Amino acid sequence: MPLLDDKTCIITGGAGSIGLATARLFLDEGAKVVLVDLEERSLSEAACGLPVDRVVPVAADVTRADDTARYVETALSRFGSIDVVFSNAGVFGTVAPIADYPDDLFDRVQAVHVKGAFLAAKHASPHMTAGGSIVITSSVAATRGDPGVYAYITAKHAQTGLMRCLARELAPRGIRVNTVNPGPVDNGFQLAVEKGLGEAIGADGTDFFNSIIPLGRHASPAEIARSVLYLASEQSSFVTGTMLMVDGGMSV
Questions:
Q1: Inter-axis angle of helices 150-170 and 103-110, to 10 degrees?
Q2: Which of 3, 68, 187, 252 is a plausible cystine mate for 29, CB 3.0–4.6 Å?
Q3: SS3 assignment, position 59
Q4: Which of 145, 141, 148 is nearest to 99 (CA)?
Q5: β-bridge mates for residue 219, sequence order
């Protein structure tokens, strides 16, 4: 039997590589998917080729309560329930000394990662079924402190606190809450990070990351998606309040 047979799953950041890889895997496992992203054009491109009877794209800003309520209501009106929320939307910010870090960029990164996950849980969890799952995309950055990465690392640490509070509150209803914590992933998001890092350290950013990952390479989006599937499905029925490190050993 498919792992997510007839389950309704909301995926934010759905047009990105991890979101889309997860959507495809969820669909293969029998799910119905509400695919959420900020830009309608990239969302339409991502949804192209996915089964129209089981995928609903919704353009929304995850930092806005009204947009969040709208994608939750779309899931309920179209599919009748919510079983899984994958809060995956993210932005990196920049790398800069503390004295030079832009205030507005710091605020934006917190809003997308932390407030976005908070709003997703706030609006979706009252409607979720027993046995449901909330998965928040965090990062190996939630275990680190690196100079200059102020907005992103702060946001990823904050998501851990949010996840743990939610796990405690929602456990009596049988809803599990966890983070998935990727290391570097072979995608455009990471490439942009590594370009900025390379300029800062005067070396190839991709080579640098590979040198500090024990497995010696980046993950593929599909590898992260398989870990999300584990947390979303009954395979992890006794797992809540955890950080699932999918980082090639980088946090060891």
A1: 30
A2: 3
A3: strand
A4: 148
A5: 185
DSSP 176: E
Confidence category of residue 25, pLDDT binned at 50, 70, 90? very high
Of the residues 71, 101, 150, 152, only one is catalytic, namely 152
Query: Residue 238: is it exposed, middle or buried by C-beta count within 10 angstroms (0-12/13-18/19+)?
Result: exposed
Residue 197 pLDDT greater than 80, yes or no? no
State the pTM of this model: 0.95
Mean per-residue pLDDT for 17-29? Answer: 98
- Note if 150 is an active site residue: no
Tell me, rounded to whole angstroms, the distance of Cα 209 from its chain centroid.
Answer: 21
Name the β-bridge partners of 84: 9, 133
pLDDT surpassing 90 at residue 52: yes
For the sheet with 128-137, list strands across it. 55-59, 32-37, 8-12, 82-87, 128-137, 176-182, 243-246
Q: Would you say domain 8-185+220-246 falls under CATH 3.40.50.720?
A: yes
Residue 124 has pLDDT above 90, yes or no: yes
Task: Break the chain into its structural domains and give their ranges.
Answer: 8-185+220-246
Using DSSP bridges, classify how beta strands 55-59 and 82-87 pair: parallel, antiparallel or unpaired: unpaired
CA distance 179 to 163: 7
Question: What is d(CA 31, CA 174) in angstroms, rounded to the nearest whole number?
Answer: 20
pLDDT at 246: 98
**Cα three-residue angle 121-233-111, rounded to 5 degrees:** 25
DSSP code of residue 219: B
pLDDT of residue 10: 98
